[in-house]
Amino acid sequence: MSSIQLAFLCLSGMIVLMALRVPIAVALGVTSFVGIWALRGLDTALKLSGSTPFEFAASWNLSAIPMFLLMGSIAYRCGLTTSLFDAARLWLSRLPGGLAVAANFAAALFSAASGSSVATAAAMGRLAIPEMLRYRYDPALATATVAAAGTLGSMIPPSIGFVIFGWYTETPIGKLLMAGVFPGLLNAVLFAVFIIGWCTLKPDAAPPPDYHPTLREKLAILLKVWPVPALILCVMGGIYSGLTTATEAAAFGAFSALIIALLRGGVTWPNFRDSLVDSLQSAASIFLIAVSAVLLTRFLAIAGLPQFMGGLVKTLDLGPYGVIAFMTVIYLILGAFLDPIGIMLITLPILLPMWKAVGLDLIWMGVLVVMLLEIGLLTPPVGLNAFVIKTVVGDRVSLTTIFRGLIGFIVVDLILVVLLVAFPQISLYLPSLLE
Q1: Could you give the CA distance from residue 264 to residue 262 in angstroms, rounded to a whole number?
Q2: Closest CA to 244 of 338, 160, 177, 327
Q3: b (16+ CB within 10 A) / e for 382-414
Q4: Which pLDDT tens digit goes with each residue over 286-340?
Q5: What is the Rg, in whole angstroms, of the alpha carbon atoms belonging to the chain?
Q6: Cα atoms in the 13 Å half-sphere on the side-chain side of 81
Q7: Do residues 266 and 28 lie in contact, with contact meaning Cβ atoms separated by under 8 Å?
Q8: What is the pLDDT of residues 6-33, one digit of tens each?
Q9: Is the pTM here over 0.90, yes or no?
């Protein structure tokens, strides 16, 4: 058996293990260890398994991940984000589906503070869904809006996905974070347009509220939401101005979140402790998967798969758009079954040589990858955000209803993918200003 055949056999075995519900980190690690053992012997497999975790953990750029997670956890646990939905509701309630539109834009702001799609969906679900159901909104609209808007945390910086993509592909993380700004905002606007269209064509889906806030109330609520814009300014302003790297901006963002929470009197020992525990647990989970993925990368490199895939692209003459089409199909299929971070780390060793073979811009590809992973958070049978929302609403709304409502949002996401492919400058304009 050739090394290439062994590589594909091991990758197939890895997929079977994950289909059997073996944890992604274990499936990656076991497959990689066995593959290296078969190619280079047990001693090499043991040495690489021992050295890889330290080399991975020593990466300076990856320290941005726990810092961004800590920033988001402090913002949520210490109450810095609680007024977002109230502010959006007061300003947008008169639009068709105003509460849903408000939840959508509140989620966009929340994701800019948290960097986590799951955290955004869970937080906005608790705040917005009961309010929409109280006003007799269609349960499919209410739940799907929050599940879909939660995915904005994948794109709008700070984004953990961009940090991991930048680390693996050796692409500037600051530029990747800036590249997500316009696509993320455009995504939020397209979702809002879709919600308004849905509620205009089907008014019964979102009865108008009977309460009309005064201008004074609208202005007063704005005084309560300043912490989130302040955090965004601390993080993105430092990167855009060149004063900080992405890693330094993450640390400064976490520090700023703590200072703002202290100034507002929202810090207690229990919620600070919970913030630390949440961020440590999330970071440990991500790092464990990533360490196993690095081991997989080394196995595939030993087997010669990256060179094989690069040569295959040139032989088949796929061209840039052919490679993008192949990538899209792979991510849409895997996104229906696997965790987004796991998908990224499984596929990058295969896709990176293909992108390089046809000269695709890695920042552009980073945005497309994160966008496609965003869709995977919504697609059945393992649409993670749909399950998060199901946990929030309990028996009040069925999982089938949530997925039914998500169909339109998935179509909107696919339209945005087409726009990002057709007009790369949507992603590349802001990063070009950092050069």
Answers
A1: 5
A2: 177
A3: ebbbbbbbbebbeeebebebbbebbebbbebbe
A4: 788 888 878 888 888 888 877 887 777 777 777 899 999 989 988 888 887 777 8
A5: 22
A6: 29
A7: no
A8: 888 888 888 788 778 788 788 888 999 9
A9: no
Residues 36 and 271: beta-carbon distance below 8 Å = no
Are 375 and 413 in contact by the 8 Å Cβ rule? The answer is: yes
- Quickly tell me which residue has 């021992």 as its tokens: 50
Note whether 158 and 235 are within 8 A (CB): yes
CA angle 391, 392, 393 (to 5 degrees): 95
Residues near 199 by beta carbon (within 8 Å), at least 6 away in sequence: 96, 97, 100, 141, 205, 206
Helices (H), 58-180: 64-77, 84-92, 98-114, 117-134, 139-150, 152-155, 160-169, 173-179
Residue with tokens 């997925």: 403
- The letter for the amino acid at 340 is P
Dist. CA 290–CA 295, nearest whole Å: 9
d(CA 166, CA 164): 5
DSSP 289-335: HHHHHHHHHHHHHHHTHHHHHHHHHHHHT-HHHHHHHHHHHHHHHHH
Res. 2 pLDDT band, cuts 50 70 90: confident
| Whole-angstrom distance, CA of residue 367 vs CA of residue 162 | 8
Q: Which two tokens stand for residue 291?
A: 């360490």
CA angle 402, 405, 410 (to 5 degrees): 110
Retrieve residue 263's tokens. 């100034």
How buried is residue 419: exposed, middle or buried, by Cβ count under 10 Å (0-12/13-18/19+)?
middle
